[in-house]
Amino acid sequence: MLLEFDPLGIGESGAGGHLQDDRSTDGDGMRPKKAAGEERPIVQTVKLELPLFVRLKTFGAKTRRSNQDILRSALIEYLSKQRA
Fold it and tell me: How many domains does the chain have?
């Protein structure tokens, strides 16, 4: 995959200061195409109180894991225990 920085926005979109990707897109010019039958992840926003967020970030830093990986693993485990 080749990424090329276009600081003046001379590329196709003309938006300025963005990376251009040589991958083909799904028609909106933003996201790479997915293989047939492959599903896209769905974005889910979670609001956390500051102390819980700090605990999550601290745990992630100590274990070198992303917030998404930690939360996804915890959700899978919880749903399995609930037999949902």
Answer: 1
CA distance 56 to 63: 11
Any domain includes 74: yes
**Which amino acid appears at position 44 of this protein?**
Q
Q: What share of the chain is helix, strand, coil (3-state, %, to 5)?
A: 35, 10, 55
Boundaries of domain holding 67: 50-81
15/25 Cα distance (integer angstroms)? 17
Tell me the C-alpha distance between 57 and 65, whole Å. 9
73 in a structural domain: yes
The C-alpha torsion from 14 through 16 and 22 to 27, rounded to 10°, is: -50
Amino acid at the residue 59: F
The overall pTM is greater than 0.85 = no
Taking only the tens place, the pLDDT of each residue in 51-64 is: 999 999 999 999 99
